[in-house]
Amino acid sequence: MKKQMRDLFSKGAFRVNGSLWIEGDGTRFFGPGPVELLLLIEETGSINQAAKKMGMSYKKAWEIVSRLNEIVGSPMVITATGGEKGGGSTISEEARQLIEYYQSLRERFRKFMEQESQKLQ
Fold this sequence. Notes:
Mean pLDDT: 88
Shape: elongated
């Protein structure tokens, strides 16, 4: 980094920060919130229970799931109605793969921000 740039950052603790989303058709659709929702659906077996744990309405959770399914083009959440246990939901193998990819991408992004932040010291 040039000396002038270093001088700009000499009077404080600066760091590079950012958020990471995957976009489809120009729309942010996969990031921290949808990942958490999918993981909670897997954990609880219920879109409604996952939504409650996140402090969001069932309607909002269902909108996120619908948008994921629409943009990705295959079901991210598989729902079952009725039955002995009253139905439930689980995530698809494609959802698991997308979560794994996102988590790996997020780790690489974290390392990039860390490296760039060190340049500001």
